[in-house]
Design brief:
The structure is a homodimer. By secondary structure, chain A is α/β, with parallel strands linked by helices. Chain A folds into two domains: 6-158, Rossmann fold (3-Layer(aba) Sandwich); 165-254, ProC-like, C-terminal domain (N-(1-d-carboxylethyl)-l-norvaline Dehydrogenase, domain 2). Chain A is 49% helix and 14% strand. In chain A, 53% of the residues are buried. At the A-B interface, helix 6, helix 7, helix 8, helix 9 and helix 10 of A face helix 6, helix 7, helix 8, helix 9 and helix 10 of B.
Chain lengths: 258, 258
């Protein structure tokens, strides 16, 4: 099989964005697999390709990309290794080492980790994504880079250890900053105020760190040491959000740029 | 004095951005005041206007905008009320009520609260800013709206109570999300990895909430309930960041969109 024949194992947020990007690049995946027929058909129909919930039913392919929850990955990778002993098998997980794929029986393997936040409802433009790649040998690394190039993604080499830290840092920069947006929305909703009012602020906060390091860009009551505002804010909060306000403010105060 | 003659009391982040925006709009402030001559001269020279650290030395003006730390605001506002008994006096603080200005002796007063993150090193484009205004009467509210219009800011009416909650919500959406970027940068720096790698992710995270509510946009190990990744991440952290990882993940789990 040639290396443009790709099968996607998984039909979650990342698998969906990746499948759509490959299709848009003129390299429609041959087939998709998901644990349930429902989600397999959803993505299969979107891509116009074969789908199944049974790995043994999938067609041959040059490259198999596994994009499933980390906990399910080793078991599914073992099954893929059995079905595709000669194909290049890739996973997309930030926190799982490349060697896991070898340990479950893959002979040609690597990692394709696009560091981005993926949702099915919003397809990501890969030209804005940094993808971190690792191959079991240099020929494989080149093949993985070619996939990134095909969908227009910026591509960087990263070891399994570096990738683990990139993923951890991404949880803070992305998942946790989004959680702060959610807390903000919760406060506004209670007062009948629209979250839309926050969007220019969120945009400027994100833009600012293109030009200033985050601890230089830090503003607000904690950064100013404005205790009267912090006390007033704490008095307006309770439960989870009150604790969160305390902890994050303490972090800001303790890590203030000298 | 006519209502285009403006004096700025304060030379901090917001005062600087506002002064520059007024200058760019062709309405150079008449004068600026700051507690120290050094910071007064820095902004005065930037705007090409009179500056002083003595309020009694300032020229007459139609409008006086006070933009100082919340803790200093009542005392300085009282001094301004004494020097400018007939001028319109505005403050720019999210958390301070409009009535404070009346209580220190202002006769015509209001609030001009541009909800944005301001840094001296990066002047804000006010056309991207939502400004919340409140006036002691409708004629004053119109005058405040005219200032917002002059610098191209979107303008909304907000009561003092609404403004307090907007400010609190802004601390979460802006100051705290920036703190999450800082934690991310701290993790990367320890591993010798560049923070720049996070920028596309930060941008997409900020863009996403233009289209999805934050709790719908939430992704990552906590949103997926991926305990194995969360445990691995906790094992990689210690101190402040370990506690933060726990608390924010718990929030995400407890507030998951059903």
């Amino acid at each position: 099989m040639d290396d443009s024949s790709i099968i996607i194992i998984g039909a979650g947020n990342l698998a969906t964005s990746l499948g759509v990007a490959l299709k848009q690049a003129g390299n429609v995946p041959l087939a998709v697999w998901s644990r349930t027929v429902e989600s397999a058909s959803l993505l299969g129909n979107r891509l116009g390709c074969f789908y199944s919930n049974d790995i043994s039913q999938l067609p041959d392919a040059g490259i198999v990309i596994i994009s499933v929850a980390d906990a399910a990955l080793p078991e599914i990778a073992a099954e893929v290794a059995g079905r595709y002993p000669h194909s290049l098998v890739l996973h997309t997980a930030g926190s799982i080492s490349m060697e896991m794929l070898q340990s479950v029986g893959c002979s040609r393997y690597g990692v394709f980790y696009p560091m981005q936040t993926f949702s099915k409802a919003r397809c990501v433009d890969f030209t804005t994504v940094s993808t971190f790649v690792e191959g079991c040998n240099s020929e494989v690394t080149e093949l993985i880079r070619a996939i990134a190039a095909k969908i227009g993604s910026r591509c960087y080499d990263a070891t399994s250890k570096q990738r683990r830290y990139l993923h951890l840092a991404a949880v803070f920069a992305c998942n946790f900053s989004n959680a702060m947006y959610a807390m903000s929305a919760q406060i506004l909703q209670k007062e009948g105020l629209p979250f839309e009012a926050m969007l220019p602020l969120i945009e400027e906060t994100a833009n600012k760190v293109h030009h200033l390091a985050p601890n230089e860009a830090q503003t607000g009551p904690a950064a100013r040491g404005d205790k009267s505002v912090m006390d007033a804010h704490l008095a307006m909060l309770d439960g989870d959000l009150k604790s969160m306000y305390k902890y994050v403010s303490e972090y800001i105060i303790n890590n203030k740029k000298k």
